Amino acid sequence: MSQPELTHLADLHVHLGSAATAHLLWELAHQRGIVLPEKNYWKFLELVKIDHKIGWETYHNYFDMTQMIQSSPEAVEHSIHEAISLSYRKSSLDLLEIRFNPMRRNGDRMYDLDRILLSATVGMRKAMMEYPVQVGLILEMDRRFDMRQNEIIVEKAIKFRHDGVVGIDVSGPNCDTFSMKEIAILTEKAKSYGLGITIHTGEAQPVEEVKEVLKYIQPDRIGHGIRSVDDITVMKELRDKNITLEVCPSSNVTLSVVKNWAEMKKTIRTLLDNEVKVTINSDGPVFLQTNVKEEYQKLLDKGILTLDEVEDCNKNAHQASFINKQ
How far is CA 256 from CA 82, 99, 263, in A? Predict the structure, then answer.
């Protein structure tokens, strides 16, 4: 018997840098006169689509080029619109949250951050007029930034909280100078204005950092968070505090965060067995050549989730969304 069609899906974890189509990035780069490392379009595709396993740190290098191409108000508007359009057409979803770092889209201070964010909201509103999907924007702080840079991002999220910005995140490669304890003052400020808090941790970071996030920040959600399976007390705290994990299966396998799909299955089953709320997400739809609908289908085909569990994960995503939270 064939599986029923998966519809009305939600994707809570999508990065703008890996969500705009390759042809849009190509055209935006040429319109702006950006020198690309490849002059042949088909070769360029190899720079924005990952079809083999790579390391987690290497993955972040892919964003350098896409963030450069998206660094203007017009490019951000078009990229947001395209990310929403693509997600809707491919996934039949009705709820989408897109995250990005505005400071990595302002051309090294060439463009005003308010103008960047205004353009993002315009692209979002245009797409929502064309497609029946709810969309929210999450602004990302960065582990490599100093406190003042991250503080500015939080201030901008607060300023645009009535215009489509729904939450704050912390992402980026591991950095020895970064402290979850220090960043807590910024997340508390964002919380006080009704913004949702999600933190990238427990992906390529050990469970000890998940513990720090739970202690100092107490987020609404955790981006990835799969290393929580290494400590049963952490999973109990996630369950008791109703903190939802944004699990991205294909991303974790492709980036070698887990060894293979067998380990991914064990991870997801352990989380569910410990009653941790799990959502399934695409992470980087264009880079990883996937979408949330395909993610669910993979988990069904591989016997990782049942159809009822797919419905539960999707329900979790709708309930944990920051959209309409304020």
Answer: 28, 22, 11
**Sheet-wide strand order for 93-100:** 9-15, 93-100, 134-142, 165-171, 196-201, 221-224, 244-247, 278-280
Find the Cα–Cα–Cα–Cα dihedral 310, 312, 318, 322, rounded to 10°.
-110
> What pTM, to 2 d.p., does this model score?
0.96
H or E stretch covering 52: none
Q: Residues 6 or more apart from 272 whose CB is under 8 A from it?
A: 278, 309
Strand pairing partners for 196? Answer: 167
Please tell me the number of Cα atoms within 13 Å of 44 on its side-chain side: 19
Whether the CB-CB separation of 318 and 35 falls below 8 Å is answered with no
Helix 180-192 to helix 147-159 angle, to the nearest 10 degrees? 20
Beta bridge partners of 222: 199, 245
- What value does the CA radius of gyration of the chain take, rounded to a whole number of Å? 18
Q: Give, in degrees to the nearest 5, the angle at Cα 77 between 73 and 78.
A: 120
Q: Which residue has the higher pLDDT, 146 or 3?
A: 146
**Phi and psi torsions of 91, nearest 5°:** -115, -10
* CATH of span 9-320: 3.20.20.140
More confident residue, 51 or 42: 42
Tokens representing residue 256 in the block:
């070698």
Structure tokens at 171: 């992402």
State whether the Cα torsion 97-98-100-105 is positive or negative.
Answer: negative
- Over range 272-292, report the average pLDDT: 97
E-assigned strand segments in the chain = 9-15, 93-100, 134-142, 165-171, 196-201, 221-224, 244-247, 278-280
Query: What element of type H or E holds 232?
Result: helix 232-240
